[in-house]
Specification:
single chain, 295 residues, mainly alpha, 13 helices, elongated
Length: 295
């Protein structure tokens, strides 16, 4: 996958001076391709009925010109699926979404081994964080919260407590930047992602995977399912401690952020593989080291 900076540069080149890109009507597509020696066509039309230039595109294709769907092109370029104009058939008949029993079993074995190794290495750190939490404020060391897992099943996510006790007296709310509910110890462990260490226990229990979409609270899931198309599809696999959306999109806590993160989650679900999991894990390590994206 190309870096974000390169993607932005390519998109700017595509979008600059659009008036010079109009070289003729639909009936001249084949002649323009031959005249300008064009080797690739991107079809980015929302409506493909009526005046759709099927004959011209077919002629171009038979002459060796590559014809790509606009959504597939954006998916490859930006590493996310667009949900704004996504039709069910685009998912049903597209490549990807291959998860064999062998892959699922192997991924589960990797989850168990990584979590056991991670809990072993972080044992001294776990003790230090627990002591720091108890010394700063009264309340439990761990924080348990209901989240939505695979196939919509509810499980209790385990984290180090980073907020004051009774942080939501009026009901669930989105996390905020510079949240005043976060304790001093909580700010540190959130920045370093140490608060997520206990989630490896959730992985051992089989409630989560090491890599996957972040699990969300059922209160927000019900609202987002009503507002955002295909939001339920992110629950077709186990949620993860880290994931493609987490490394590609900054921490977000709004409906708009949920839409953007869903685009990356669907891309991961479609293209999930050991190579992609490895890349996400390495990028997550960099984020943890430099403290980016935490709130």
């Amino acid at each position: 996958m190309r870096p974000e900076k390169n993607i932005d540069q390519e998109l700017r080149l595509i979008m600059q001076e659009p008036e010079r890109a109009v070289l003729g009507g639909y009936g001249k597509i084949a002649s323009v391709c031959q005249e300008k020696n064009i080797h690739r066509i991107i079809v980015a039309l929302d409506e493909r009925r009526g005046n759709f230039p099927i004959e011209q595109l077919l002629l171009c294709r038979l002459k060796g010109v590559r014809v790509d769907d606009g959504m597939a092109f954006t998916e490859d370029l930006a590493g996310k699926l667009s949900v704004d104009h996504l039709h069910p058939s685009s998912l049903i008949f597209s490549s990807g979404f291959r998860r064999s029993t062998l892959f699922r079993n192997a991924k589960r074995c990797v989850d168990i081994l990584v979590s056991l190794f991670g809990l072993f290495l972080s044992a001294p750190l776990t003790v230090a964080v627990a002591v720091a939490i108890k010394l700063e404020s009264k309340g439990p060391v761990f924080y348990r919260q209901e989240r939505v897992g695979e196939d919509g099943k509810i499980f209790r996510l385990l984290k180090f407590r980073s907020m004051c006790v009774d942080a939501e007296p009026d009901g669930p709310v989105w996390a905020r930047k510079d949240d005043d509910r976060v304790t001093q110890v909580g700010k540190i462990i959130r920045k370093l992602r140490f608060d997520e260490i206990p989630q490896m226990i959730n992985v051992l229990r089989g409630e989560m995977s090491f890599v996957g979409p972040r699990p969300e609270r059922s209160f927000f899931v019900e609202k987002l399912k009503r507002d955002i198309p295909y939001y339920s599809q992110r629950h077709t696999i186990k949620p993860g401690i880290t994931g493609w959306a987490q490394i590609r999109y900054p921490y977000g806590a709004s409906r708009e952020d949920a839409v953007e993160k869903l685009k990356y989650d669907l891309y991961y679900i479609k293209h999930m593989s050991f190579f992609l999991d490895m890349m996400i894990t390495l990028e997550t390590a960099k984020i943890v080291l430099f403290g980016k994206g935490a709130r």
